[in-house]
């Protein structure tokens, strides 16, 4: 009898609770707000009360009370699984979530994972991996997460909320890495961030590029910013040297006293919101009915500014210009008649050419692209040597040897014999001037020449410049030979290098490297190669 009364009381309590929740929900819908509805969505139900409701309402799944209880359970399940997510259990968490009705709870999933990532940005890659798994089964859920992140990013960008902006960027970047988001979204974000660069927007951009730069380089190689990166690094170096080579103005051009200077406060965007009038009508001839009067007034102004000293030469200005034009036309006619092509090979043109070559090399992704661009220059004979020397100079300036330059030089050697001869001469000149090189340049040049020798891009006759004796070598020269031969042996093997050095057709070129004219020189060469671990070559 006592047990029956307890069950009746519990049943009555549950029914009243469900009715109360239902009434509260209706009141919320009518009033637009409530203190019983949590921000997470739905009324808060204590766990004990929730279990009692589930037991009582388990049979009637069509009731609102049951569905509300199921919603709360789904919310706690999703939230709990996301909170325990890490690299080691991501598969188990994904399986557990997929067992639930994620289509119904997609909003809960999106909110929970965005909140979790905001609290732990360093785990963005883990959360993105989970989204990628869910997205592979339910693309609409992945899209929902992405749309919410975009809205969050745009809102924080407008509000100058850097922290939220960085957090959203990290998540979107890793979603792009996981191919949940297309790389176009990342590129659009970069464009938006750099439209009006500020300290904060640059910081967000750097964060975005650090997280997904490798992906962008892989899927959009044409968007590589090596040249821009070089320009920025150059700018930072210029700033570090306090703009030593870029003064405000040259002394020869500092001609106006400060009292006479007039600075115009012209803003980029006028304060009245209107655009500036370019006054294009001033470019068109217009009849002046008071021409003589205006000319006289200007004469007075001119005399006040520059005086009468230039009056005599002033009238002849137009005639001189006309004479110069006629002389230029005559020169052009004479050149056309004679068929002579005049090449302006002044120092300024050579510097401009070298600068163009350098920028072309730096903006190319690989040596093939660089070679293709440089060949399109239609080089004149006088500039072929400059091109070869520029490739060598670029190689020598690197912190470590880059095979890019060896492959590029090899391509030009195979393209035309003139290039091959130039690089052979450079190899000879390099050894003769090796004592002027620092260790980095020396090492780069040794490996560069070794590559050309290994690929037979240049002839091994270049060794004719070397005389391996105590009197004819310097410490730098001996280090150069050591690095060169160690590179040859590493890439070609000791046996192949030995055969090439003892090739009958190369004996004349190798006489200086392996001297036999004097026992003292022979011993020196043998001892040298033995000390560098290549005694078998002798």
TrEMBL record:
One of its GO terms (molecular function) is RNA binding. Signal peptide: none annotated. GO terms for biological process: mRNA splicing, via spliceosome. Keywords: mRNA processing, mRNA splicing, Nucleus. Pfam families: MA3, MIF4G. Its main location: nucleus. PROSITE patterns: MI (PS51366). SMART domains: MA3 (SM00544), MIF4G (SM00543). It is found in: Nucleus speckle. This is MI domain-containing protein. The lineage of its organism: Eukaryota, Metazoa, Ecdysozoa, Nematoda, Chromadorea.
